[in-house]
Amino acid sequence: MNQNNGRVYNFSAGPSMLPLEVMEDVARELTNYKGCGQSVMEMSHRSKEFGAILEETEKSLRTLMNIPENYKVLFLQGGGTLQFSMVPINLLRKSKKADYIVTGTWAKKAAAEAKKFGDIKIVASSADTTFSYIPKVNKEDFREDADYVHITFNNTIYGTHYGYIPETGDIPLVADMSSCILSEEIDVTKFGLIYAGAQKNIAPAGVTIVIIREDLLGFAPEEAPTYLDYKVHADNDSMYNTPPCFTIYVAGEVFKHILKNGGVAPLNKIDIEKAGKLYKYIDESKLYSCPVQEDSRSLMNVVFVTGDADLDKKFIAEAKTIGLVNLAGHRSIGGMRASIYNAMPMEGVEKLIEFMKKFEAENAK
Amino acid sequence: MNQNNGRVYNFSAGPSMLPLEVMEDVARELTNYKGCGQSVMEMSHRSKEFGAILEETEKSLRTLMNIPENYKVLFLQGGGTLQFSMVPINLLRKSKKADYIVTGTWAKKAAAEAKKFGDIKIVASSADTTFSYIPKVNKEDFREDADYVHITFNNTIYGTHYGYIPETGDIPLVADMSSCILSEEIDVTKFGLIYAGAQKNIAPAGVTIVIIREDLLGFAPEEAPTYLDYKVHADNDSMYNTPPCFTIYVAGEVFKHILKNGGVAPLNKIDIEKAGKLYKYIDESKLYSCPVQEDSRSLMNVVFVTGDADLDKKFIAEAKTIGLVNLAGHRSIGGMRASIYNAMPMEGVEKLIEFMKKFEAENAK
């Protein structure tokens, strides 16, 4: 069944594949990290050893993303979901107005949560076509006094991705980059805040990266839960309370692995090649089609359908038998989805295309 | 330097030692869990495999703690710190009054945070003697209309532990058991809610266990951040958003390890023996003393001093050279603290006492 030294190709939307070499290193030093006599799982977060891990992890991410000095990097818990609350609690600081672009389930959830805390306007949405594209917005589309604009940069469920960074003028742009972080070079200075759950391109689930411009710190109301105040975490270098140390360590190992291989640019090149091959085959195929508008397609989540729900099910089941797993689309929309994050090897995509061809030949209409 | 197959005895207050056998098993299946071709770090939280892990983990904890059917078990993020907010947000449901017993730094923080959300009364405190004992409280000490009573069952920093469960009548009792969970048999029915960060007796940092009586669910105000509503997590079996899957898996492995060894009762017997040996030696010693009142001493955190800050420093430094690490008291109080959680082997305590004797002989006053 398995084709890859006993390992499957896991197309899960997240948690998802991690680089095998990184996991092998982690396994090797699991009970004794660098000869210190302890596992990273057991280490006091106040220890010299963990301090060095946290520092190096942050430094690696700063190098990978070219994060300027005037941005803080935080390692938090609670996933994107907690960010849906933390962003409005901290950033609705003057007019209490924020503008959201709704491009899928998570964007909708983010906006709905924000409505608990302020005056939220949906300035654009692609709900009209089941989120098959990213709307084009201009500076004029935003309310002049909005405290921030929120976008979901990559939409895991619908397989869409912003092909551009919306121009917001002086209004801070906030982006959920959970499912595309480190897959492409990003100009961090275009954003006021970037957040990303780790469980796609970074680490196991359990840590959330927040990159925030320093002038946006310090606006959480006094009555907000302390854990939800970015400034508390920034002032304490993500050590206000015990951080998820082991997960941060794995993230750091992944960052070092990417650095060793030349950083984000070469990864992006491979990601473009991987996704390109898959989209090309789908577009040429008579059986499969991709519902996503070409200029809005994600490099990370490739959504496709046969147009026949029973055939989709058969596809997913047969793929699984040869070690191509988790190809089902999100339970809310069905069809197929191949999530091909950074750690999905080219071979995985090639095996998938090979299988798709075979399946198409066997199930020609 | 290391005495234990290259591993040190780690007396850290948390994160802290985990059973070596468990970590060895985790390392062995790190890149391929039970032949499924994936690491638990990579698994979709919606997969059959992770579903089975989560279910078994909860079941094991229910068995270990004899948790009744009318209690929900939740696996959350954010540590005790987020619980300091979630408890009042969810449980201040009628009078908006709650009574806190303050027995140390964490209890004080819990009460301070709760004040953001309601009328909080400190009904008893041991601050008068630097938290060297657990106050005795009776039902009459609590406000009749209090929505709950909060206690910190074991005080990691000051080395104290409740020798009794306060009688609160119909008022739900809430206990932070972060540093003593699974070290003793507890009658869960005496509590409305128990919470515990995992990083002492359970798993790496990054998951928080909440055990909550079902009738206490559903009272979070509508405007509360969704992640902070216990009911949302209970209704979704801790899968409202992506849980910290890998950390939950390690917790489950620790639970199975404890079950295999007979459950909590035999562990408690060993814990009593370990702490007993250490306290006995300290009480008999001419150099060391324990500032904690005898009936309030913790089995998990043994605090002691020489009475000479420089000598304390020398002790900590010398102990480290022979692989007895993290013996410094909390940075807020100094002195020494030996945290001897479930995973600290008897040999670790014996080595510590041996070293203490040698140090005493060499540094007799």
Question: What brief labels describe this structure?
Answer:
homodimer, 365 residues, alpha/beta, Aspartate Aminotransferase, domain 2, 7-stranded mixed sheet, 13 strands, 15% strand
What does this molecule look like?
Two copies of one chain form a homodimer. With 365 residues, chain A is α/β, with parallel strands linked by helices. Chain A has two domains: 24-260, Aspartate Aminotransferase, domain 2; 263-363, Alpha-Beta Complex (Aspartate Aminotransferase, domain 1), CATH 3.90.1150. Chain A is 34% helix and 15% strand. Chain A is built from nine helices and 13 strands. In chain A, the strands form four sheets. Chain A has a seven-stranded mixed β-sheet. In chain A, helix 4 (105-114) links the parallel strand 3 (97-102) and strand 4. The first copy, chain A, is globular and about 65 Å long. Chains A and B meet through helix 1, helix 3 and helix 6 of A and helix 1, helix 3 and helix 6 of B.
List the helices and strands and how they pair.
2 copies of one chain form a homodimer.
Chain A lengths: L8 E2 L9 H9 L19 H18 L5 E6 L2 H13 L5 E6 L2 H10 L4 E7 L22 E5 L1 E2 L4 E2 L11 E4 L16 E5 L10 E6 L16 H6 L9 H16 L3 H21 L16 E4 L4 H13 L2 E2 L10 E4 L6 H17 L3
Parallel strand pairs in A: 1-12, 3-4, 3-5, 5-8, 8-9
Antiparallel strand pairs in A: 2-10, 6-7, 9-10, 11-13
Helix pairs in contact in A: 1-6, 2-6, 3-4, 7-9
Order of helices and strands of chain A: EHHEHEHEEEEEEEHHHEHEEH
For the report, how would you describe the main beta sheet of chain A?
7 strands, mixed
Strand tally of chain A: 13
End-to-end span of chain A in angstroms? 28 Å
Shape summary of chain A: globular
How confident is the prediction overall: mean pLDDT of chain A?
A: 96
Tally of individual helices of chain A? 9
How are strands sequenced across the largest beta sheet of chain A? 2-10-9-8-5-3-4
Structural class computed from helices and strand pairing of chain A: alpha/beta
The CATH H-level homologous superfamily of the largest domain in chain A: Type I PLP-dependent aspartate aminotransferase-like (Major domain)
Largest interface, Cβ cutoff 8 Å: A-B, 76 and 76 residues
